[in-house]
User: What shape does this take?
Amino acid sequence: MKTKFDLTNPAIVKLCLLCEGVRIEEAVLKEVGRAFAEDRFRYHRVSKIPKGFEVVPSEIVLPEDIVCAVFIEEKSPWLIKYNKKGEIRLFYQEQKEICPVSLTKRPKFFERKLSSGHLCRQIAVMYGNYVLALFIMGWCYYPAQKLGCKFCSIGSNWGETGLGRQNLKFVTPKIAQEAVKIAIEEEGQRIKYVMYSSGSFPNNDRGFKTQTEVVKEIKKVTADRACHHFTIMPPDDFSLIKEIKDAGLSTMAFDIEVFDKRRFEELCPGKEKFYGYDKFLEVLEYAVKIFGWSNIHCGFVAGLESLETMIEGFYYLGKKGVVSDANVFHPDPGSELENKARPCKEYVYKMAVEQAKVYKRYNLISIFPIGGRRGSLDTEVYKGYFG
Assistant: This one.
């Protein structure tokens, strides 16, 4: 393994960018929304838009096909700009050139119209080069009850002035199917995963059933060409888990966010009131029996609890066959934690090293082994970049 914070290791570069953000020169930003894919802000807002611009990139791709989120920070030591040869490069402290980067191309399907009159980009986006992502419901019951997760900006993002208001708020199974069919026509074989996510419903079982119908319809047009993953609130009736697996879902995530029970109650009041910490642990263990070892995931937000309790959670779940995924905390504009600092690099590095040990010990696989997730190091951990 390469040494700690060795910037020749692209996974370490990604770690630094997740913790310290990045700046992008105007010449590059001018191409976002034209040649390069813009962030559609489907679930939340992750950056303040630079003055004079309307959009930011969806993500960048580092060497070795590593996908990294773009978090704009005015004081970041990292800068994306054109070098003297007209190539896009990542620089550190203005002058030190670190590595080439690419911005993902704007998908051809974005401007295709559906029979409903909606644009395809209002329903589906590409995350990186391989993941077709759909946000099934752009509304969450918890913020409406003033019980939203404190790190989440979905409430402000989908309001009257939010950037997510452009997207379709509720995606029916038939609209979802049509959007995915068009995306496959345009993007072809590069779609290796279909990822679904959604806000919470007032009734956990009804919400779960509704989303199961979406999976059924999309599976009809994708067949076995892609793996299907859903981040979803679990049902109260555990028997519904088999129904969504039978519908064609490959993997599923129930996100507890933090393993520290006190912090869970404090940071996720809606999840605590309408589901509960102990029930989350119970349903995760049950779901493994239905989906199989390493096919059930549990999301954490790295930086919202002590390193010790988070790692304790990794091991606790790992020995039960549940994969711990860890998004690095980002202070979303409009969230209750918008002024909270990101975790330091040392915290995230130690987390990744321990996560790697858990993956190896319990034979666990990341959600997207190809490409990976943009805001986490799960795939890089799985591939051995951290031991």
Observations:
- The chain has one domain: 108-382.
- The domain at 108-382 is CATH 3.20.20.70 (TIM Barrel).
- The mean pLDDT is 92.
- The radius of gyration is 20 Å.
